[in-house]
Amino acid sequence: MKIIVCVKQVPDTSGRVAVKDDGTLDRASMATITNPDDMNAVEAALAIKDKNPDCKVVVVSMGPFPAAGMLHECLAMGCDEAVLISGREFGGSDTFATSQIIAAGINHIGVEEGDMVFCGRQAIDGDTAQVGPQIAEKLHLPQISYVADIEFDGKTVICKRMLEDGYMTVKVQTPCLLTCIKELNTPRYMSVKGINEFDSKPYTVLGYEDLKDDPLIEADTIGLKGSPTNVYKSFTPPQKGACQMLEGSGKETVDELFGILTRKHII
Questions:
Q1: Quick check: helix, strand or coil at residue 266?
Q2: Model confidence over 172-181: pLDDT tens digits?
Q3: pLDDT one-digit tens code per residue, 151-166
Q4: Which of 89, 187, 194, 213 is the Cys-Cys partner for 76 at CB 3.0 to 4.6 Å?
Q5: Which class for 158: exposed (0-12), middle (13-18), buried (19 or more C-beta within 10 A)?
Q6: pTM of the full predicted structure?
């Protein structure tokens, strides 16, 4: 069996967010990280591998060649194989086109009985939570989203799915697709052995020529041309004003705060 994990390299939004004059993100000048929810998906796959030695974990990403560093980290964590889907023809893809391309890449790898596909809930740069479910639809796989717990017995998966006001228990047969949330686990660190051995593991780059024969890959379904949506504008939120710390007893600070708010005509 194998578990295919989809990961994405995203801008590190905890630092400076650079925006070009045309309103799009200047990704080249920003630090990047592995999307946090995707790391929970990687950990979930590795946890299953720990209990099933015959399990192979394949990590897949679509993006430019610098994403190799992120995939190498996943290999150093314990993943067995990495696949980068990259090509100019794929540039500018929205969630619909991206899911087309990644689904074609997964078809190239192959999904058989007993296999699973894991994705993070959503990416911190787009926050759409659309790509994982769209991949499932295009691969005709049953899916469970917002997974907070996984039990796997070799063929059947039982998941605790997080809802706004509680949890839902869902049982599904493999092959299937799960989207994972941060409450599922705590991702492990790279091991010293993994860092020393990651470059000996299979690393494959799939381009347009490798995937063009897949029915999902057509000129009007990938890239900018195949994207029914586009980002109108990206911008940095206004900076918050400096804070003022109040000291003293509870009554003293309440009285001082009341006076400040009154003088500013807030109350």
A1: coil
A2: 999 999 999 9
A3: 998 889 999 999 989 9
A4: 194
A5: middle
A6: 0.82
